[in-house]
């Protein structure tokens, strides 16, 4: 068993174990991938202040996200097709999150359904939804989330249309994977992955197939998906979704302060500063650079979280110091899931927690709730000094 000390260790194992189309789906961005890269590299531009001769005992990373107790300010982000990275992947990730004490958010485009995850876990999870035109489907999706006792709904607002993701197009990404000479040759080298996938019945989009009208197989799913994303989405439409869900609501995909203020006005409980992991508008600002202007705009009107580019506990610490109430991790836990299943997700959370705990202590803080900008050295112009 290899010694896992950092998230990168899990990524290397993951790359060896999972078919190329699913590795590339996770580990890529749109167009030139500038934003995908800068989401991570921009964290490196923030420096930490080390303090000494301060009592480091009695540390705590426990806090709250949308009023829910969490072991550390981290949630597992919604990732489409997680069940293709590892058989029954959504169930395994949700179970690992539950045991660790952090929230799990299920994607609408998951392989395991809401009901699958609910029947295999004991604590409420969060449900992510897209802004689709199909009102009947949307209402029933929210009702299914209520029936599953989901403790928050997450509306993703930055996917009215797909950004061009070159690798996904070239690989012919699909679930289950299309059988072509290239994909068959690649999957033949991933025997453990294949054997596990053969033992599960969950290989399609479990929240859609059999639930959306007319969607009974992969071909009808493709047609429905292409027609369902709402390019006419506006904030009034989001208000309609708010009426469909009376529980805690999180709006994900905010990268501009003006949109953050709009999210406050529709009655959301929290926003996630996110550029969809660099998979939508390439050339957009990284999430960590976009965070401060959004915090300045909304103040304490709404809880602010951050995702995109978080690969370590130090990234979490820096985001919290900049004002975020928590971070969402996607790729970091998918690496673990693809590498080692549920145990890999747990290992990813353990790695991030240790980095967060040790780095916080070396900055002279013993409680994550006391972390602020004083622990950072922020370069001038980090969040932009742009011409009007």
From TrEMBL:
Cellular component (GO) terms are: plasma membrane
Keyword terms, alphabetized: Flavoprotein, FMN, Oxidoreductase
**MF annotations from Gene Ontology:** FMN binding; L-lactate dehydrogenase (cytochrome) activity
* PROSITE patterns with a match to the protein in the record: FMN_HYDROXY_ACID_DH_1 (PS00557), FMN_HYDROXY_ACID_DH_2 (PS51349)
Binding positions for FMN per the UniProt entry? 78-80, 107, 128, 130, 156, 252, 274, 307-311, 330-331
EC numbers on record: 1.1.2.3
The active site lies at: 276 (proton acceptor)
Q: Which SUPFAM superfamilies match?
A: FMN-linked oxidoreductases (SSF51395)
Could you say which residues bind glyoxylate here?
A: 25, 165, 276, 279
Flavoprotein is among the record's keywords = yes
Instruction: Give the protein's cofactors.
Output: FMN
Q: Does the keyword Oxidoreductase apply?
A: yes
Which InterPro entries does the record match to this protein?
A: Aldolase_TIM (IPR013785), Alpha-hydoxy_acid_DH_FMN (IPR012133), FMN-dep_DH (IPR000262), FMN_HAD (IPR037396), FMN_hydac_DH_AS (IPR008259)
Pfam families according to UniProt: FMN_dh
The segment(s) forming the FMN hydroxy acid dehydrogenase domain are 1-381
Q: What class of enzyme is it?
A: oxidoreductase
Entries under NCBIfam families matching the protein: PRK11197.1 (NF008398)
Q: Which PANTHER family match?
A: 2-HYDROXYACID OXIDASE 1, S -2-HYDROXY-ACID OXIDASE-RELATED
Q: Which family does it belong to?
A: Belongs to the FMN-dependent alpha-hydroxy acid dehydrogenase family.
Q: What is this protein called?
A: Alpha-hydroxy-acid oxidizing enzyme
């Amino acid at each position: 068993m290899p010694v896992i000390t950092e998230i990168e260790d899990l990524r290397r194992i993951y790359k060896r174990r999972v078919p190329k189309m699913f590795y590339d789906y996770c580990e890529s961005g749109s167009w030139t991938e500038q934003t995908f890269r800068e989401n991570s590299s921009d964290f490196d531009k923030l420096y930490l202040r080390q303090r000494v001769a301060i009592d480091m005992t009695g540390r705590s990373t426990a806090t709250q996200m949308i009023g829910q107790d969490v072991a550390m300010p981290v949630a597992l982000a919604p990732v489409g097709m997680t069940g293709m990275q590892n058989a029954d992947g959504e169930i395994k990730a949700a179970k690992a999150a539950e045991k660790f004490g952090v929230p799990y958010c299920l994607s609408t485009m998951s392989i395991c359904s809401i009901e699958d995850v609910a029947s295999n876990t004991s604590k409420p999870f969060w449900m992510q939804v897209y802004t689709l035109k199909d009102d009947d489907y949307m209402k029933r999706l929210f009702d299914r989330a209520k029936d599953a006792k989901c403790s928050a709904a997450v509306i993703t607002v930055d996917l009215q249309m797909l950004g061009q993701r070159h690798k996904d197009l070239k690989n012919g990404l699909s679930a289950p994977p299309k059988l072509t000479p290239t994909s068959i040759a690649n999957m033949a080298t991933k025997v453990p992955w294949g054997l596990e996938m053969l033992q599960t019945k969950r290989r399609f989009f479990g929240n859609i197939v059999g639930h959306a009208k007319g969607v009974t197989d992969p071909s009808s799913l493709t047609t429905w998906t292409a027609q369902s994303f709402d390019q006419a989405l506006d904030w009034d439409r989001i208000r309609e979704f708010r009426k469909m869900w009376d529980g805690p609501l999180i709006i994900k995909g905010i990268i501009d302060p003006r949109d953050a203020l709009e999210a406050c006005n529709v009655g959301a409980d929290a926003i996630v500063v996110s550029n969809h992991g660099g998979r939508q508008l390439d050339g957009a600002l990284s999430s960590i650079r976009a965070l401060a202007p959004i915090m300045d705009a909304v103040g304490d009107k709404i809880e602010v979280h951050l995702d995109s580019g978080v690969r370590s506990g130090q990234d979490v610490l820096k985001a919290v110091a900049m004002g975020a109430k928590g971070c969402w991790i996607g790729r970091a836990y998918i690496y673990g899931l693809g590498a080692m299943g549920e145990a890999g997700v747990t290992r990813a959370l353990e790695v991030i927690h240790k980095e967060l705990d040790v780095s916080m202590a070396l900055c002279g803080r013993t409680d994550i709730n006391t972390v602020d900008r004083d622990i950072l050295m922020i370069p001038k112009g980090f969040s932009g000094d742009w011409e009007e």
